């Protein structure tokens, strides 16, 4: 009798996670060999690069602290997909050329929302696992 009451009580206070309406779900599994010259930018802390594989418009990869890597969708999450919505890497930021939105590659958060951005979406995160010198990125 008390268990159903607790389930109802605990279940009511959680915020609903809103899915980004601009993105479709894509499935992929990519292995990247960090020893290859194409990935030299990921060998140091704060290094980042964009690859065309995976995701909707490719992936943004970021070396967070030398051992931990993050992977983000390379599409701007705050407007419908357009020709200008592919994010580019600028240091530790991702930038959208449509309206100049800038996102942190360390957190995925929008850093410069405009007055019309009511509840901005963060960048879409993809799973990254490291095995030796290989990054395994999937969704």
Give the helix/strand class: mainly beta
Order of helices and strands: HEEEEEEEEE
The total count of helices amounts to 1
The largest sheet is: 6 strands, antiparallel
- Give the rounded overall mean pLDDT: 90
Report on this model:
It is a single chain. By secondary structure, this protein is mainly beta. The protein has one domain (37-138): Rieske [2Fe-2S] iron-sulphur domain (Rieske Iron-sulfur Protein), CATH 2.102.10.10. The chain is built from 1 helix and 9 strands, in the order H-E-E-E-E-E-E-E-E-E. The relative contact order is 0.20. Residues 3-10 have low confidence and may be disordered.
Describe the structure concisely for a colleague:
The protein is mainly beta and 139 residues long.
């Amino acid at each position: 009798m008390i268990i159903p009451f607790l389930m109802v009580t605990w279940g009511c206070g959680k915020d609903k996670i809103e899915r980004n309406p601009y993105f479709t779900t894509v499935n992929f599994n990519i292995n990247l060999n960090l020893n290859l010259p194409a990935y030299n930018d990921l060998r140091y802390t704060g290094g980042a690069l964009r690859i065309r594989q995976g995701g909707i418009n490719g992936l943004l990869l970021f070396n967070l602290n030398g051992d931990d890597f993050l992977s983000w969708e390379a599409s701007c999450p705050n407007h419908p997909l357009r020709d200008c919505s592919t994010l580019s890497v600028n240091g530790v930021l991702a930038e959208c050329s449509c309206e100049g939105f800038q996102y942190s590659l360390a957190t995925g958060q929008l850093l410069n929302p405009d007055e019309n951005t009511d509840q901005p979406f963060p960048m879409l995160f993809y799973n990254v696992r490291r095995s030796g010198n290989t990054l395994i990125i999937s969704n």
